[in-house]
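Regression test case RT-17, inverse folding.

Input:
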């Protein structure tokens, strides 16, 4: 995205000029929060957690995110949650649980047996 921005910004600006009067301070504050906190600060904590707990184990924790996203959208934003969304999140959770159960066991080889 960063590399294509110099080419795309003029094209997008010409095709659909922004209506700056329609952008409120809340929108800009939200954009700033997502840009700074999510894109930079949260990644530092996430990568530290991956390093501490192991990528394979902690990486699966992110697959439970649909439940937290749905709960946050309902509680904070007042969104209505459809049964199909809960079913999709449950399928993801089922895949994570199946993957955890089917982990392979490493067999140590004894020296001298090739």
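Golden output:
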């Amino acid at each position: 995205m960063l590399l294509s921005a110099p080419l795309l910004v003029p094209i997008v600006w010409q095709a659909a000029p922004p209506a700056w009067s329609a952008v409120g301070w809340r929108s800009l504050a939200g954009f700033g929060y997502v840009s700074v906190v999510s894109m930079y600060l949260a990644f530092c904590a996430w990568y530290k957690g991956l390093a501490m707990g192991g990528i394979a184990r902690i990486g699966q924790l992110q697959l439970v995110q649909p439940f937290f996203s749905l709960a946050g959208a309902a509680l904070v934003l007042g969104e209505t949650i459809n049964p199909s969304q809960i079913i999709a999140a449950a399928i993801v959770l089922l895949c994570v649980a199946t993957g955890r159960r089917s982990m392979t066991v490493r067999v140590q080889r004894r020296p001298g047996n090739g």
